[in-house]
Design goal:
The complex is a heterodimer of chains A (about 450) and B (about 140). Chain A is of the alpha/beta class. Chain A has two domains: about 290 residues, Aspartate Aminotransferase, domain 2 (3-Layer(aba) Sandwich); about 130 residues, Aspartate Aminotransferase, domain 1, CATH 3.90.1150. Chain A has 14 helices and 13 strands. Chain A has a seven-stranded mixed β-sheet, sandwiched between helices. A four-stranded antiparallel β-sheet of chain A has the order 9-10-13-12. Chain B has about 140 residues and is α+β, with helices and mostly antiparallel strands. Helices cover about 50% and strands about 20% of the residues of chain B. Chain B has a three-stranded antiparallel β-sheet. The longest helix of chain B has 25 residues. The termini of chain B are far apart. The model of chain B has no long low-confidence stretch (mean pLDDT about 90). Classes of the chains: A alpha/beta (about 450), B alpha+beta (about 140). The interface between A and B is medium-sized, with 31 and 31 residues.
């Protein structure tokens, strides 16, 4: 067994050696540009790309013509959301998503909200200039807005109705188990809603959303459905038709393929459109310009085919390892909480809070194992995991959380080693923790007046 | 984030982890930080009647830097007078452990813990002094 042990499969996966073998010819020998239509180098590259398109389509039950290659899922999410908002701006301007989505979705939505807010501020200034008959400084906006009671201004209201920039966004709060409440989603949909974006599986807590039900609801309401399926595709069964998904983001490096290549599935029947976000040579049927990453795409295709062939047996093996890990740890330690639904969960995910032991300290104590923590100390923001917080997990529990991610190359030997290491480290940290001592003495930690800093 | 060798050394072999009897009149207890912020430090000092720190124990819930800062101050304060211990600043701690900017709050917490423990001891002493001793103390001052 080699140290350190990798248990962070949600961050990225090691590339399968079979994927690397498939990619090798496309760097030096078959280096052609897939867009070169008039010589053999180009034809060969194009054939390799088209084969990969079929392999990836097959994994999610899509046709090859519905796959648009991108640089990764962040770009796919940006293209899906901004592309829909741009294309369907005459139809509506409202998006619904969930507060536990990946930042690539949330920050995209926030930008759209900001764009709309900035446009409205411009209109307010314009209106105030009309009303005051003089130039208005943006800094005066807040005070003049009240003075001229703009909120009841019918002219401004009409102007705002015509705004076609950005979007309004509703962020749903998931239930305590991390799953979306379908009734809440139904109520959030308005006649201005154009898109619902809900991820297939969460990157932190691994919960699997009821995408088939969400897709059905969206279809019924005539709203497009986008899903960031990065963590789930290749790990659990997913089909674009079962989910009635219109747009699906996927990436190679979460399924044992190379980094830097992803795809957006864009439904053809009924036809879904996105406005391109990168201008240029009109590659990918105009939806994403830029020379294709042929070797990467070949690797993506090979990884997709392997995932499809091995998914069933791999999921069974990986979930057994995950269960072994949790059983082993919970047999020896008390005060454990599993974060997120235990039922609807990715095979390789375990997210646990070890009360009274701080996450980053714990990661340091098990430094031979690569995991992640929801502790603030691990991020630049100093805020603990927003995903755990959205589930209503208390801050101290979020600080004590560790995410274990298992996958294709995890072994029983590694799991047993990690169990022993985690038990030892948590015991040591708890022996060192004033909170553990106080809890054991029966002191209610919630009743203490902590001096927050 | 890479940790300095000194942080790792203190984290792996912390000195003076433990608990002193908080009801002992010569023990001052400082409890600082908050679970919601991800770090809580408890520093206990056993202080002789003439104001010398004879023993120091800590327990800390927090990251490696918080644990290292606690361990370091327990080593530093032992044998010091209360007044000298009060002079230890977070800058001294951060410098000794080469803490990066995002970890400075750990050293601030350790400095606060020293001050809180000594204040607790002083408050205890003030509460138990008899009028005769109080006169004595007043004369000394």
């Amino acid at each position: 067994m080699k140290l350190p042990i990798y248990m962070d499969y949600h961050a990225t996966t090691p590339m399968d050696p079979r994927v690397l073998d498939a990619m090798k010819p496309y760097f030096v020998e078959d280096f052609g540009n897939a867009a070169s239509r008039n010589h053999a180098f180009g034809w060969k590259a194009e054939a390799a790309v088209e084969k990969a398109r079929k392999q990836i389509g097959a994994l999610i039950g899509a046709s090859d013509k519905e796959i648009v290659f991108t640089s990764g899922a962040t770009e796919s999410n940006n293209l899906a959301i901004k592309g829909v908002v741009d294309f369907y701006k005459d139809k509506g301007d409202h998006i619904i998503t969930v507060s536990t989505e990946h930042k690539a979705v949330l920050d995209t939505c926030k930008r759209l909200e900001r764009q709309r807010a900035e446009r409205i501020d411009e209109l307010k200034l314009q209106r105030l200039m009309e009303l005051t008959e003089k130039d208005v400084d943006p800094e005066e906006l807040a005070s003049l807005e009240i003075k001229y009671s703009l909120e009841n201004d019918t002219v401004l209201k009409r102007w705002i109705d015509k705004v076609r920039v950005g979007a309004r966004v509703t962020y749903l709060t998931p239930k305590k188990d991390g799953l979306v409440d379908l009734e809440q989603l139904r109520e959030a949909i308005t006649d201005r809603t154009i898109l619902v974006s809900v991820m297939l599986a969460n990157n932190e807590i691994g919960v699997v959303q009821p995408v088939n039900e969400i897709g059905a609801l969206c279809r019924e309401k005539g709203v497009l459905f986008h899903t960031d399926a990065v963590q789930g595709v290749g790990k659990i069964p997913f089909s674009v038709d079962a989910a009635k998904a219109d747009l699906v983001s996927i990436t190679a490096h979460k399924m044992y393929g190379p980094k830097g290549v992803g795809a957006l599935y864009v439904r053809r029947k009924p036809r879904v459109r996105v406005r391109e976000q990168i201008d240029g040579g009109g590659h990918e049927r105009g939806m994403r310009s830029g020379t294709l990453n042929v070797a990467g795409i070949v690797g993506f295709g090979a990884a997709a085919e392997l995932a499809q062939q091995e998914m069933t047996s791999e999921a069974a093996r990986v979930s057994a390892l995950r269960d072994r890990l949790f059983k082993g740890i919970s047999a020896k330690l008390d005060y454990l909480t599993v974060n997120g639904s235990e039922r609807a969960r990715l095979p390789g995910n375990l997210n646990v809070s070890f009360s009274f032991a701080e996450g980053e300290g714990l990661m340091m104590a098990i430094k031979d194992v690569a995991v992640s923590s929801g502790s603030a100390c691990t991020s630049a923001s100093l805020e603990p995991s927003y995903v755990l917080r959205a589930l209503g997990v208390e801050e101290e529990m979020a600080h004590s959380s560790i995410r274990f991610g298992l996958g294709r190359f995890s072994t029983e030997e590694e799991v047993d080693y990690v169990i022993a290491l985690v038990v030892k480290a948590v015991t040591k940290l708890r022996d060192m923790s004033p909170l553990y001592e106080m809890a054991k003495e029966g002191i209610d930690l919630k009743k203490i007046e902590w001096k927050a800093h | 984030m890479a940790y300095s060798d000194k942080v790792i050394e203190h984290f792996e072999n912390p000195g003076n982890v433990g608990t002193l009897d908080k009801n002992d009149p010569n023990v001052g207890t400082g409890l600082v930080g908050a679970p919601a912020c991800g770090d809580v430090m408890r520093l206990q000092l056993k202080i002789s009647d003439d104001g010398v720190i004879q023993d120091a124990k800590f327990k800390t819930f927090g990251c490696g830097s918080a644990i290292a800062s606690s361990s370091l101050v327990t080593e530093w304060v032992k044998g010091k007078s209360m007044d000298d211990a009060m002079k230890i600043t977070n800058k001294d701690i951060a410098l000794e452990l080469s803490l990066p900017p995002v970890k400075i709050h750990c050293s601030v917490l350790a400095e606060d813990a020293i001050k809180a423990a000594i204040e607790d001891f002083r408050a205890k002493r003030a509460a138990r002094v008899t009028p005769a001793v109080a006169a004595e103390v007043a004369k000394e001052a």
